[in-house]
Every structure is written in C-alpha cells, then in structure tokens.
C-alpha cells in the first residue's frame, strides 16, 4: 500500500483549476492589501520626515545649517524602518491565512511588497512636497526648508526583503510538511436516485 504525500502549497487534484483560481484571487488580495497599507504608511512618512534647512547666502546659493544635514539620513532611516515593519507585519498576516499558505501567497506577498514600497515612496514624497513647497523669491539671510527625499532607490528593498525573510522563517519553523494547510474536503454529493 502506497501513501501519497502532498507537497507544501499544493492542493488535492479535485477541482485543480478552481483551487488555482482561488489561490490566485487570494494572492491578488494580498497584493492589494499590502499596496494600500504601504501607501498609508507613505502618508505617515511624508508627514514625519524632517526637512533639511538651508541659509540663503547669495542669490543662487545656500548653505546647510549646522546639524541639519543629518536630516537626510533621518528621512531615509525612517522610510527603511517603516518598510521593514510593514514587511514583517504583512508576512505574519499572510502566514496567518492558513488555508492558502504556499507559493502563490509568497509571490503575492513579495510582489505586493515591491509595488507597495514604490507606492509608499511616491505617496510619501508627494505628501512631503505638499508640506515643504518650493520657495520662489529667496532673499539673502532667509532660512528655507528643503523637501526630504530618499536619496536612493535602494531604500525600496527593505520591505520586500523583510517580508520574504520573515515568511521564510515561518516556513522553516513549521513542523508540518504541508505547512499546516487545512485540506478543504469536497462536499459529499447527495446520492442520486
């Protein structure tokens, strides 16, 4: 007698297309949820990111005030921390959806985190631009704020990296080879007369 084991993330062959479409829809919901949550975090970043202040010394030149240049780092560090927190929380949230654990969810999580980090950056930079609009008429001796920025696109890597790493950790800590996926038994058909 042979026993058949089920691979992690695979469903029984009954209704294969239906099960796959359910997994794809679930992964699409994960992508949408992570992107919306990330955009909301981008609003928070845009409201929290500090501006760097400059002193206008001539008609076309300005110099950074003492200690203000660290705000460039502060803005990027704040974005990285928000991205890492979102990555960890989204991975734990996706892992808690027990019925759909597997490859489709991981793809949805990582794709959602990549798109979500980009959305957070775009929304956050837009909010920061609204907070610190450009100044047209500069006078010598005037102190003006500069809109905070990310400085590098590498800041977008924190969220998908944290999400993938935490999901990998949760998978490796799972004691069951099927990742604890609850098999949904097909409904028993009523006997025909």
How confident is the prediction overall: mean pLDDT? Answer: 83
The DSSP helix count reads: 4
* Order of SSEs: HEEHHEH
Category by helix and strand content? mainly alpha
Form type: elongated
Any idea what the radius of gyration is? 24 Å
Q: What does the main sheet amount to? A: 3 strands, antiparallel
Give the fraction of residues assigned to helices: 40-55%
Strand order of the largest sheet: 2-1-3
Strand tally: 3
**Percentage beta strand:** 5-15%
* CA-CA gap between termini: 34 Å
Unreliable stretches, pLDDT < 50, 5 or more residues?
184-190
Could you explain how this protein is built, in words?
The protein has 193 residues and is mainly alpha-helical. The chain is built from four helices and three strands. Strands 2-1-3 form a three-stranded antiparallel β-sheet. A hairpin with a 5-residue loop joins strand 1 and strand 2. The longest helix is centred in the first third of the chain and has 33 residues. The two termini are 34 Å apart. The relative contact order is 0.21. About 4% of the residues have low confidence.
What are the defining features of this structure?
193 residues; mainly alpha; three-stranded antiparallel β-sheet
Provide a concise account of the structure shown.
This protein has helices at residues 16-48, 70-95, 103-131, 158-173; strands at 52-56, 62-64, 143-146.
